[in-house]
Structure formats: C-alpha cells, structure tokens
Amino acid sequence: MELPQIRMQSQLAKIEMTTNPAIQSIEQPGPDLDIQQPPAELHITRTPSMLYIDQTEARADIDLKSIRRRVEEFAQNGYQEWLNGIARRSQEGNELMRIENGGNAIANIAKQNGKLFHTFDFNIGYVPKAGSVKLEYVPTKLDIQWELHKPVNNTIARKPIIDYQPGTVDIRMKQYQDLKIDFDNLKYVGTNYELEI
C-alpha cells in the first residue's frame, strides 16, 4: 500500500545590498602671514659727573694769593688801621685835654706809642690748615627712557575647504521566496482531495 506523500520545497528570500562609502575631503589653505615688529627705541641722556676742588684757602695759607685777594686784604687792613689810628688819636687828645688834672700825659702817650711794635710768639702750625681744601662732587645722572612698539599683525586666516559626498545604500531583492508543494497518491474529487488506497 502506498501512503500519500506531501512534499514541500521552500526557498528563502534574499536581499542584496550594495553600499557606496561616503567621501569627505578637507583642505586647509595656509594663512597669509603679515607680522611686523617695529624695533624698540632706547633714549639715554647722560649728565657727566663733576668734581670741584677749591684750594684757594690752602694756597692763601702758604701765601700764594691772587692779586685781587691781596688788594682786598690790604684795603681791609688799611681801613682797620685807619680806624685804630683815629681811636688812638682821639684817646690821646682826651688825655691831653685833661692835663690839668695832673699826671704826666705826654710821657704816658710816648710810652704807649712805644708799644706799637709788638713781638710775635710762634708755636707749631700746620700749613695749609685742615679743611682749607674744599671738595664738591656732583654724581653722574643717567636717564634711560624706553619706547616699546607693539607688533603689527595683519595675518589673514583661511577657512578650511570641506567637500562631502554622502554614501549611498542600494537595496534590492536578489532572490524571492518560493514554496513548492507536491502531492502523491491524492485524487481530486469535487472540491476535495481524496486519498486513493
């Protein structure tokens, strides 16, 4: 006896995909550099130092005097001696005026005039005297002035050039699904299948 058989053969559907990758291109142009640096300016003002030495008094101590100073000293001494002479003669006149009061006025005046020539005592002395040389020093003055200049930057930046092509995906059916059914030992009766035995 033959048993009825049903044979089924199926085929799966297949999809085929084709991709085109995206393309991106980036180009960076270099910048236009324009940088200038003006140099700094240095200004120096210098006043030289000065040393003043005044040895006039030291030279006068060893009798090296200028003509002008000698004339001034002689004039001062002459004036002082003139005043002393006036005072002495005035005093002598007063004494002679009072001669009636007694005393020996003429002898006293002669005795005093005899003392006009004095003797001088000399002890240890230093020539020139200490401190007779005068020193004055003016130090150097230095004025330094800087004048800085900022850099001049005229650089122009360039934007990047970007080129982008998006990728694509192509999808299609490579194989459609299929189902085959095969019947053995079946008989079609009316609208139904009957099995033959």
Helix percentage range = 10-25%
Return the string of H and E elements: EEEEEEHHHEEEEEEEE
Class per helix and strand makeup: alpha+beta
Unreliable runs: none
Radius of gyration over C-alpha positions, nearest whole angstrom: 70 Å
Please outline the major beta sheet.
2 strands, antiparallel
Instruction: Name the shape in a single word.
Output: rod-shaped
Total helix count? 3
Verbal overview:
By secondary structure, the protein is an alpha+beta fold. The model has no long low-confidence stretch (mean pLDDT 83). The strands form seven sheets. A two-stranded antiparallel ribbon has the order 1-12. A two-stranded antiparallel sheet has the order 2-11. It is 24% helix and 38% strand. Strand 13 and strand 14 form a beta hairpin. It has three helices and 14 strands. The chain is rod-shaped and about 210 Å long.
Summarize the structure.
With 197 residues, this protein is an alpha+beta fold.
How is the secondary structure organized here?
Layout: E1 5-11, E2 14-20, E3 23-27, E4 35-36, E5 41-47, E6 50-54, H1 56-61, H2 67-97, H3 105-114, E7 134-138, E8 141-147, E9 152-153, E10 161-165, E11 168-175, E12 178-184, E13 186-189, E14 192-195
